[in-house]
Amino acid sequence: MRQYFGRKLFIYGLTFVAAVTVNWVIPRFMPGDPVASMLARARVSQPEAVEAMRVYYTNLFGFDEPIWQQYLNFWGALFRGDFGISIYVFPVPVTDLIMGAVPYTLGLMIPAVLLSYWVGNRFGAFAARRKLLDNTVLPVGYVLTATPYMWLAVLLAWGFGVVAGWFPIAGGYSFSLTPSWSWTFFVDLLHHWALPFLSLFLVALGGWAIGMRNMIIYELESDYSNYLAALGAPAKLIRRYAYRNAILPQITGLALQLGVLVAGALVTEIVFSYPGIGSLILKAIQNQDFFLLQGSFMFIVIGVLVANFIIDIVYVLIDPRTRTGMAGAQA
Amino acid sequence: MSLRVSELRVHYKTLRGDVKALDGVSFTMDDGEILGLAGESGCGKTTLGKSLIRMDGRMRHVGGTVELDGRELPIGDDRAMNDYRFHEISLIPQYSMSAMNPTRRIGRMVTELLRSRGVTLDRKELESRIGMVGLPREVLDRYPIELSGGQKQRMVMVISTLLDPALLIADEITSALDVSTQKAVAKALLGFRDGGYVKSMIFITHDLALTSHIADTVMVMYAGKLAEKAPSEKLIKAPKHPYTKLLINSLPEIGVRYEERKLAGIPGSPPSLLNPPQGCRFRDRCPLAGDECAEEPPVNEIEPNHFVACWKA
């Protein structure tokens, strides 16, 4: 058990280092100079003043040090939980910006991931081997899962927002309100949340339903199902066993899907101008805000790794065969 | 008379037409009898076994009846048949190695299975039967993956016979086992019968030699029909049907050097059951075939309990 988790943790550690490095490298290879754009925004015309500001900013962000020193500094700062200061909303620390956006992203992602997973699996399992449902679930599922997140988001925004006018199409809450712990604000929040959630939920739902339906059919063909049926076990019991065994590959699928879902959520946020990490990343890119970009990506990397680790643990808990594998057997 | 099968016809639906896998098979079995069912692949033995307990989706009950202890079995009706399964008729499947749910502890699976059939588990009885087949009682707390192939096989045997069925169908259960394990399994089967846990048993195999050790009666099938049925001793020593003779001749004997005497096989292969030929189905491969074989031979009881379907017998 310890060896298994030791190995897993080592692999996650390695992934983390690689991700952090890539994350540090990419913004620095983007064309353009963030300090220059800050100066341009400051609209200072005297060359001496511009020069003085350039030196000040370059020094502040550490751009005057050699590149390897910047890399080491980055790691050092990371362990202190310091992601630097935003260039775009100078001088707000990146951590504060991210913490402001995280609740929105998580509030969107977690219900969308878990609910689509739960409903999709249940529904797919229920539809398998039931002619009428199967014939409808399958095509609808394929269409849903093949739909790009942002396209469905745009469609929903247009249909329910612009044409029907039932839902607002932008923002996390109405501009007229200020965030507070009031009932009005909560309802307003929910109202804004509905469409982005729905677009994420529907696309993911299709994939889970189809995957589960196929897995259940496979499991119902398996030997243990046939044996139970030959001994007259009711379909309920056989389906329950099939479901439990079919869920195993679906859990692996969840681990694989997480990255895709995160990316989908980012784009959806941009479509709905939802104030989460996705919108933050867009602004960071537009303003060449290295630190904000790094911080946001870092948050995503950590999030996906932690989620995967949780899934690893869950897998061990529900599949006895992985436990045998841990003892060194080739299972 | 525990089992009476008369004129049983079971076809497989395929896109090219019906495959007549069982084409009018009749036989009877006594209480306590072990019937060995032998024949080549595709002769209908597994189809017969499946028909008696659970037909798969492609099988159709076309004609004939099956009576168990005087009651006719609704073999074509999957739902009605459920009352008989496990309680009256049980199965040890060909695929014992994978017959148990891999993600349930065996004890829990058995409990859940029994509860679903409206029976409460008698743990003591279960443990004593597990001991009978030589397994430790701890297997109940294990997952199927933690058992060896032979152990899984024996565990499935225990599960299948737990409700003391009147008829047990053992389908090719020794095919995947090595010789010493085969012997243990054969012993366990005889133990179940002698201990009164199962009344009668159909032992399906393609291994004639093994069948004759376990079975009281052996029935040889060919192309969906009965070829010969006789007490095992008689069938091995004095077979009447040319197919049985050839089958027995193709078995290797201990002490014979086959460099000197070539082991005889049966040339050719069984006919397609999609459109079986008229007359005797073995005609094309039979060394004795004559003109009368163009007509189908009836099943005759040439001696008490010795049935042969051949004009030349």
TrEMBL record, chain A:
Listed transmembrane segments: 9-26, 97-119, 140-169, 189-210, 254-277, 297-318
What is the superkingdom listed in this entry's lineage?
Bacteria
Query: Where is the secretion signal located?
Result: none
The record's section on Pfam families has: BPD_transp_1
What keyword terms does UniProt attach to this protein? Answer: Membrane, Transmembrane, Transmembrane helix, Transport
Is Magnesium tagged as a keyword?
A: no
Location in the cell: Cell membrane; Membrane
PROSITE patterns on file = ABC_TM1 (PS50928)
Membrane topology annotation: Multi-pass membrane protein
Q: Which CDD domains does the record match to this protein?
A: TM_PBP2
Where is it mostly found?
membrane
Q: Which PANTHER family match?
A: OLIGOPEPTIDE TRANSPORT SYSTEM PERMEASE PROTEIN
What is the official name of this protein in its record? ABC transporter permease
Task: Identify the species of origin.
Answer: Nonomuraea harbinensis
UniProtKB/TrEMBL annotation, chain B:
A molecular-function term among this protein's GO annotations = ATP binding
Coiled-coil annotation reads none
- For this UniProt record, give its keywords in alphabetical order, as a comma-separated list: ATP-binding, Nucleotide-binding, Transport
Any stretches that span the bilayer, and where are they? none
The protein's matches in CDD domains, at most eight in alphabetical order, are given as:
ABC_NikE_OppD_transporters
Q: Does the keyword Transport apply?
A: yes
Name the Pfam families for this protein: ABC_tran (PF00005), oligo_HPY (PF08352)
What are the ABC transporter domain coordinates in residue numbering?
3-248
Please report the name of this protein according to its UniProt entry: ABC transporter ATP-binding protein
Q: Which organism is it from?
A: Nonomuraea ferruginea
* Phylogenetic classification of the source organism: Bacteria, Bacillati, Actinomycetota, Actinomycetes, Streptosporangiales
